[in-house]
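To whoever is on call:

I kicked off a structure prediction for a single chain this morning and the downstream step that reads the tokens threw a length-mismatch warning. I double-checked the sequence; it's 198 residues and nothing unusual in it as far as I can see. Pasting both halves so you can look.
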Amino acid sequence: RLRRRHLRHLHPRGGGQRGRGATSKMRCIDVAALFAAAILRRNPDSIVIPFDTSAYDAKIDPNDSILSIAERLAKYSGGGTDCSLPLVAANQKHAKRKFAGIVLVSDNESWVGTGRHGSTGVMTAWEAFTSNQRKLNGGAASPKLVCIDLQPYQTVQACERADIMNIGGFSDAVFNVISAFLADNNQRFVAEVEAIEL
């Protein structure tokens, strides 16, 4: 269980087909929807924002079954990707709520939208989000961003730093790694990462 409110952003890219050598027949949207549903069930005050080239206002009952929630989320499928949109939506629609972090689940192939001064749209929107959260928290702790790239390639939307973690691929271990990272529990975070079999 995650300790505080979190935003879950789900990219329901319709295709998400795996290439030769893949170890799973699941589509990216299925994995992302199941992840969001599992987190929402354990953390009912979290917010899920599905996106493609638009951010969607999904009304989801956290008391539904995980499979029911995942099935509902999997219906949000489009063809484009703008990973900054759920952050922009959070900045606009949820600016008065305090959050410990954001988990962005996508194939991370964001080709729509750009940021300021050559940065990605994700980084521009993330800076606005963290600035607002610091104001809400009286200058105290900043939230963290976790980008889960379900089909990792060579690029990321947000560069790794103290408040940003990129995860390539997905397994059950992701839940514990994310929980430790968002909780600022460095010892547990290191232990969780070291426990993962490669």
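Update from on-call: the warning came from a stale cache, not from the record. Cleared it. Sanity check on the structure: The chain has one domain: 6-194.
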